[in-house]
Amino acid sequence: MKDFSRRSLMQTIAATVAISAAPLPALAKDETQQTASNLFVESNGIRYAYRRFGASDGIPLVFLMHFRGTMDSWDPAVVDPLAKRRPVILFSNAGIGLSGGEAPKSIEAMAGHVEAFLDALKLKTVDLLGFSIGGYIAQQVALDRPGLVRRLILVGTGPQGGEEMTHFSPEARAVISKAAGAAESLPIVFFAPSERSQTAARAFLSRLAARTAEREPQVTPKAAQAQIAALIAWGTPPEGNRYGRLAELKLPVLVVNGSHDIMIPTINSYILAQHLPDAKLIIYPDAGHGSLFQYHEDFVDEVSRFLQA
Fold first, then answer.
1. What pTM value is reported for the model?
2. Three-state SS for 243?
């Protein structure tokens, strides 16, 4: 499947959404990240995998995952407490995990798949939580469909054309190139080198391993290369006003990062907060890219207050 051009992407989104004939399943109130079933919905010939569970009422909170991550990469200590107060939806983009199609090579195309998926679920209003590359995608969805996204949570991410975003840092590149899979690199790329942070990393990995059934396959090398191409393209400064499009995101935004992010430098979180019209910034100390997992209790409290405001 060829990567979407911007025009063909908009034409695809505008086209009639082909939804599978089966009715959407009822919300799984009592399920958790450990037990939630893998669900599927089809749109425009792509079969998307997702998990949907949590409270029966409220605006759904949709989670968009990091580079080389799947639905199994979400920390139950983050997802499950948030699901007690609102519906949550975990999503695998095209070509990732159990979703069909091929992983696109642009953030715009990845956002198009998110929009097609949400349309297939007939959702009119959502909150988005985007982590890392998921934060890039979340920004693009909010730009494309301002009436769809109510509030935005951007974690460990950056603006289009941000600082040092066309490449991985030497620290991150060394770890990623040696790791057999995404999980092997997490203690170093997601957490600080201090004993406190590494203790949190071990607890995080233990929580991720709790789910044993219906796990998604790891991201393929081909899909990872597509994601890298999208990362580089998004990180390249655009012509003209470098951060001009951030002014279009007039919705409330919560920006979160660790004090030393070696994947997407922390300075980019400051840039987001400076240029977004309505943003709150949280920087966690002695933390890296995965600060939301290290400080999961505080993060859940902050997100809950932000979404309820």
1. 0.89
2. coil
